TrEMBL record:
Residues 75-111 are annotated as: Disordered. Gene3D superfamilies: Glycosidases. It comes from the Eukaryota. Pfam families: CBM_1. This is CBM1 domain-containing protein. Residues 76-111 have a biased composition (Low complexity).
């Protein structure tokens, strides 16, 4: 009798177990033309459509985990409006349209524009900056801080850094990379040798009064670049992308 009860409980639980196994983890792929895996994200994440080749589970409500056609967003400089598929139209009409300036909710410390000038920390004008593609690949926090200290002393306000290193095979230990396509499975590296390094660059820049321009993809092949995306998506040139 106990054995029968256990089997009955297992059968009753099976649908929930199967559903859990079919959920995509944080920042995992949940859609795309060559993708055949699950499309529902874990709790607290939703499936965001970027293009015909790639959709990803990102933080947010669960309303976007539907397998229906993704929401198409049309954004202007003064307001946002959304057009949705028939499967989600009821939801979009039930909530008010979001309006207002895109910069209206930005913290005061964010750079902005005023006419033909930039505004940094309330000061309008033109600001000198420099580049450091490599700072996000430093593995020692003190080295990052030293770079920011030198920038602060020089009076430079802006630093452009790379927010990408896309690999197609798992690199050796100690190599910093942010996204991997190894084995044909896109994976965001949130570990100590991944986005945690870029996080520290942002933290140190804020502490030293430096504003960052972060490029998240490279059109060339250096550090993966578009070639890594092409290889994964099975396309050969920019005209197909």
């Amino acid at each position: 009798m106990k054995h029968c009860s256990f089997v009955a409980a297992l059968v009753a639980f099976a649908p929930f177990l199967a559903a859990a196994q079919q959920e995509v983890g944080a920042y995992g792929q949940c859609g795309g033309s060559n993708y055949n895996g699950p499309t529902a994200c874990v709790s607290g994440y939703h499936c965001e459509h970027y293009n015909d080749y790639y959709s990803q589970c990102i933080p947010g409500g669960s309303e976007a985990t539907s397998t229906a056609d993704p929401v198409t967003k049309v954004i202007s400089s003064t307001a946002k409006s959304e057009s949705t598929s028939s499967a989600t139209s009821a939801q979009s009409t039930a909530s008010p349209t979001e309006t207002g300036s895109p910069s209206g909710t930005s913290p005061a410390s964010y750079p902005a524009t005023s006419g033909t000038s930039f505004v940094i920390d309330g000061e309008p004008g033109y600001f000198a900056g420099t580049n450091s593609y490599w700072i996000g690949f430093l593995t020692n926090d003190a080295d990052v801080d030293l770079v920011m200290e030198h920038l602060q002393e020089s009076g430079l306000k802006i630093l452009r850094v790379w927010g990408f290193n896309d690999v197609t095979s798992t690199p050796s230990d100690g190599t910093v990379y942010y996204q991997s396509f190894a084995g044909g499975e896109p994976t965001i590296n949130t570990g100590a040798n991944g986005l945690q390094r870029l996080d520290y660059v942002v933290k140190s820049a804020e502490a030293h009064g430096i504003k960052l321009i972060i490029n998240f993809v490279n059109n060339w092949t250096d550090y993966g670049g578009m070639a890594a995306y092409f290889d994964y998506a099975g396309i050969s040139d920019n005209t197909q992308w």
